[in-house]
Design goal:
Blueprint: E1 2-8, E2 18-34, E3 39-44, E4 50-54, H1 67-79, E5 87-93, H2 103-118, H3 125-130, H4 134-146, H5 166-173, E6 178-183, E7 188-194, E8 199-205, H6 214-223, H7 231-252, H8 256-274, H9 279-290, E9 295-299, E10 306-312, H10 316-330, E11 337-340
Parallel strand pairs: 3-5
Antiparallel strand pairs: 1-2, 2-5, 2-6, 3-4, 6-7, 8-10, 8-11, 9-10
Helix pairs in contact: 1-2, 2-4, 4-5, 7-8, 9-10
């Protein structure tokens, strides 16, 4: 399951706005097989850590990465009573955690897809009655994470954050070489936008974890609450939502200067109106532009995370190294990193013995 790059559409999806997104060429590799032993066992192959949950969906509260599979098991048990969710799932990830690249949503989807396949949930009446399209599938995964009801499928507490379905749409519906414009509430794919020839993204993560727990969760949930859209928050939504369609048109026309203008405006508004930037993300944007990027902007939840830069494809690796060196000179204490991120395909699960 790939991570997600949000190009435009900062905090717009849960209010029914638009976003322009893509999958990145990093993510989760997952293997899964039915177990029929009454347990869902999830193993992090890098650390050797494992979590074991009751396959009837009676998952206890968990912490850390275990929160996400626990939430999936609990929700699928509620929505598909009587299904045997017993499975053994192993995963590894090349995504930096809490970096704004949707590692948590990718893990939710990876575990959900594993259990859906192992328990043959697509053949059940609740599934057929509610999930008919890829948009439905992505929306349901978003509801697993945020706890909302989906059709006749009851909700619960989710993982505790009130996000939308942008991450899940990008992870489930992306196409290599293209950005995709979505509108939300309900989720609908509006258009594919081909990357301008000879250009690519480089992503750098700041090393400041974009966490959604404790006080940070409260701040994130305030931004995610459509009822709170007044004043600066409403002004931001209106401006950023309009920028999505303008940016999609600029990418289609390969109008690189216009993309740069829109990215600069998006970044200014995130700082001034959302108030979710930190010195490190500001410095990453400034360093990208100083190193020659045509455009750059932070993305993700905010208060940390990552920045994308639009650069010429032949020079992307060298740009990434120079960008990272410039950033690390200012923030040597931050565990930062960078990679070239030409838009990637959505991924599929690998099941032993099956193509």
């Amino acid at each position: 399951m790939p991570g997600r790059l949000e190009v435009f559409g900062k905090h717009t999806d849960y209010a029914g706005g638009h976003s322009l997104v893509a999958a990145v060429p990093r993510g989760f590799t997952v293997t899964a097989e039915p177990a029929r032993d009454g347990a869902v066992t999830v193993i992090d192959t890098a650390s050797g850590e494992r979590a074991v949950f009751d396959a009837r969906g009676r998952a206890a509260a968990s912490v850390g990465w275990r929160t996400y599979p626990a939430t999936v098991v609990r929700r699928l048990g509620r929505n598909f009573p009587g299904a045997d969710l017993s499975a053994r799932i192993a995963f590894s990830s090349s995504l930096p955690a809490a970096a704004g690249l949707s590692s948590s949503s990718a893990l939710v989807i990876a575990v959900a897809e594993s259990l859906i396949a192992c328990a043959a949930l697509e053949g059940t009446e609740p599934w057929r009655a509610n999930i008919r399209t890829l948009e439905d599938r992505a929306s349901y995964f978003g509801c697993i994470e945020n706890g909302s009801r989906f059709g006749t499928l009851d909700g619960d507490e989710g993982v505790g954050t009130h996000g939308g379905s942008e991450d899940h749409a990008a992870i489930v519906m992306s196409r290599a070489g293209y950005l995709r414009q979505f509108v939300f509430s309900p989720l609908r794919s509006e258009r594919l936008v081909k990357m301008p020839a000879g250009w690519t993204f480089v992503i750098a993560w700041s090393g400041v974890h974009a966490v959604k727990t404790g006080g940070a969760r409260e701040a994130y949930n305030r931004l995610a609450d459509p009822a709170a859209m007044t004043g600066a928050r409403l002004a931001h939504f209106r401006a950023e939502d309009a920028r999505v369609t303008a940016a999609a048109a600029a990418f289609e026309a390969a109008d690189i200067p216009r993309i740069g203008e829109l990215a600069a405006a998006s970044q200014r508004d995130a700082d001034a109106l959302l108030g979710n930037q930190v010195p490190e993300t500001r410095d990453l944007v400034a360093a990208a532009l100083s190193e020659g990027a045509a455009a750059a902007s932070s993305f993700g939840a905010g208060w940390g995370g990552s920045v994308w830069a639009l650069v010429r494809e032949p020079h992307a690796e060298a740009f990434g190294a120079a960008w990272l060196a410039a950033y690390r000179a200012r923030h040597p204490q931050r565990p930062s990193g960078a990679f070239v991120a030409f838009p990637a395909n959505s991924s599929r699960l690998i099941f032993p013995g099956r193509e």
